[in-house]
Amino acid sequence: MQPKWLEWTQKLQAMSDDKLLRIYAQNGLTYSEGPFDIERYKQLRAIAAEIMATYANVEHSYILDLFAREIGYATPKVDVRGAVFRDDTILLVKERSDGYWTLPGGWADVGESPSEVVVKEVFEESGYQTRAIKLLAVYDRNRQGHPPFPFYVYKLFFQCELIGGSPSSSIETEEVGFFSENALPELSLGRVTSAQITRLFQYYRNPDLATDFD
Q1: What is the pLDDT of residues 84-93, one digit of tens each?
Q2: Closest CA to 163 of 124, 125, 119, 197
């Protein structure tokens, strides 16, 4: 479970107008025109940033700038991951940023469908060419046992069929490998959990299972 303070901060940052003083900042800044309302929403955003900065032990200005870059109606971010299997093993890549392993993938890009994004990300991060064949799961990140994160995220897991290529590192990844379910390396838990990989292996062994979601 994520800390309560993070949930408060996310709600202050993202919620739309309501009759209780219109307390939600990002949507209010998007739709308000009056200078008084705009100033009040800015103050609320600053409070949300202060809460997060205090509990995350980082500079208030850093969090405030993080929030200020988010404009428009507040919606969840979309993280897309590819599950590529070979001989009862799954493809993982080692992240340069933290030194741990994850499924290849990343943020969805504007102008590309989720399946296009996952095929591109798998190739860029691992060197393998694939074809997306099934959407296996759609998860709310906050309900999946990941460490806290400033923004709300939906995670999409696609099964991708291996069709070519060879292992290759990238600017984001330093190693590439296939691992069995019982011999996983240390995972980058902000990106993927062992429970999620276990669920993906269940799909690999039971291809008629329906898409999972929470």
Answers
A1: 999 999 999 9
A2: 119
pLDDT for res 60 = 75
Query: What are the helix (H) ranges across 84-139?
Result: 114-126
The secondary structure of the chain in percent helix, strand, coil, rounded to multiples of 5, reads 35, 25, 35
- For tokens 């291809």, what's the residue? 207
140's tokens: 């709310």
Taking the model in full, what pTM does it have?
0.72
Tell me: the pLDDT tens digits for 37-64? 667 667 777 777 777 777 777 787 777 7
Phi then psi for residue 48, to 5 deg, are: -60, -45
94 token code pair: 């080692």
Residue 151 CB neighbours (<10 A) = 15
